[in-house]
Amino acid sequence: MSTDSKTNLSNGAVFFTTINALTKGELISPSTQTTVAPLAPIISAKYDEALTTVTVSGTVFIDASDAVASLDIYLAHQILGAHTQELYIAYDYKEVIPTSLYPYNFSFEMPIQSHGHTIKTLESYLWNIDPISSRGTETTVQKV
User: Fold this and answer.
1) Which of 3, 58, 80, 105 could be bridged to 43 by S-S, CB 3.0 to 4.6 A?
2) Contacts with 45 (C-beta within 8 Å, 6 or more apart), sequence order
């Protein structure tokens, strides 16, 4: 995982990594998305035995007409909760209701030594440039 010179998000979230190893699932047609807001990501998260790394696995649903080769991941700490990590999956999508979707599966490891505490929950968002149309979900981080 690398933090390089990518621009931070408008909400202050900091670039964490780019995921190039995406697994494209079976076409979902017709689309289950009924508004211009994207479907929320499906995320699971689990600590390693030493409680030093969280493995995050997820699925995002993307308009089948868009070609996606990678996803950028951004992180921010929630102001109200010291044990909540905000996770943003950046994707520049059209604000239209898609006729069909592809699920894209991914996983990555997130070291926690820089946090100074354990992460109890992840708030995960499929983030658009326009955050009004971004969608999120909350996940409890499981311990081994």
Assistant:
1) 58
2) 54, 55, 56, 57, 119, 122, 139, 140, 141, 142
What is the number of other CB atoms lying within 10 angstroms of the CB of residue 54?
Answer: 22
pLDDT tens, 24-48? 999 999 999 998 888 889 999 999 9
> Residue 45: inside a domain, yes or no?
yes
For 38, the domain range is 15-136
β-pair partners for 47 = 54
Could you tell me the pTM of the whole model? 0.84
* Structural domain count, the chain: 1
Q: How does residue 78 score in pLDDT terms, banded at 50, 70 and 90?
A: low
Residue 118 resides in a domain: yes
